[in-house]
Design goal:
By secondary structure, the chain is of the alpha+beta class. It has 19 helices and six strands. The strands form two sheets. Strands 4-3-6-5 form a four-stranded antiparallel sheet, with helices on one face. The radius of gyration is 25 Å and the shape is globular.
Length: 501
Amino acid sequence: MLFIALFFLLLGCLTSWLVIHAAVCGGLGCSRQELVQHHHTHSGVIPRIGGLGIVMGFTLSYLCCFYFFDQRDNRSLVHYAAFAGGVAAFLLGFIDDIKPLGAKSKLMAQIIIAMLAHHAGLRIEIITIPFTEVAFSLGFLSIFITVGWFVALMNLINLIDGLDGLAGGIGLMLMGLLAYLAHSGGIFFPLVLSLGMCGAILGFLFHNFPPAKVYMGDSGAYLIGYVIAAISVLNSEKGTVLAALIAPVLALALPICDVAFAIIRRGIKGLPLFRPDRGHIHHRLVSSGFSRQHTVLVLYAISLLALLAGLLSFVAKGHYLPVLFGFFFLFVLFLLRRQKMSSESIRRIFNESWEARQDTKNALKLRDWFVLEAARADNGEHLWSDFKFVLRKIGFCRASLRVGRDERSYYIPNSNHAHPEQLWEQTHVIADGVELSLYAEKQYFSERQFLIISDIAAEAWSGAGSQWQLFNNCALSFVATAREPSNYREQKTRSLYRPTY
């Protein structure tokens, strides 16, 4: 058994490493990363083809199952579904990495993949009540819980992929936990897949640990999330439903809490729930002075403790869950005290954010309009004129934008420019050589609301730069000129365009 475990671990690791190394040396997967990404913490061109190496390691491990185990068992429908669903999740993410899909389209595709997995037999049908031997059938609720389980894990791994090595390291820990659970239950197929994925992710981490040379992209995140969900369900076939499902949830306590707080944070601010921001725990650690390497190691340590808690819940059959939840509650209270959060401050933040929701929604609509205008603008100066219109409508009284060596300014008379203490100010470094400084009067915005709309304004210019590059095949600058229209529709659109001076 030890030999087989080492074989699949090394097989997945070597395959993933070789595929990613060959892809990076061949210059694959760089097109999307050349675009300006305002909320990314990295700089430079970094390809998003890490998922390709992970799926190759996963595929080779799956194929080798036919040589090591009973072929009839490996041809069962649930095992086909574990592999085919993982590949489908990878392809969905791979398409999104090449040409970004809408959030609704991706969610619908994920639901379809999860429903097909449920139809093939990868379903949660029985739930065991902790601390008892009582189990009950879910009946028609099985499809809803199963689909929710698969979709949630695919998106959860994707949402925590915001720092070099973070999602891969947490995914590696979870695969190790699932391999142990499969070995304890004597279930060989999920054991092999878990070990193969451990190796594949390990090979990927050689290229992804800070400073990253490659990212897993949506393709790798969706694949890892799907395989975690599938193996958890496969492990539950022997009756260890509590261990197979609750143990991974406990191991994912950190990213689950981080994502939950992000959704609540965006919801009360009026922001899209899945909009990227820099409020995640890894962003806060980096901004507080931690290096990226130290931040990843700190989060690894916390995740490892959570994983050990999940393992303890398996060994003790859930009897230590109240103690674990008690420690978790104390940890949350400690964090709130460290952040100097009280019930009164939380209430004030909520009320303040709720009242400013309409301003936030208006800023988001202006951002979307401006990004669309990038494809119609004749040149960079015209787009800057439109951007001044956006800044004025959002409520900024002054702004300056530097692109390379050129700089443009925006100024509204009769504002409190003579009294800097009455103005909010923030500078965004959008990309290398692109810097945006924004100012707004304190009498019209709270500090929290100013930071929100300031970030949206910076995101608007970042998105316009991406659109300009996609449409004109050149970087956006004040002196940039749009390419010649290639058809009558483009010519008509360009002729109807009128910059807002």
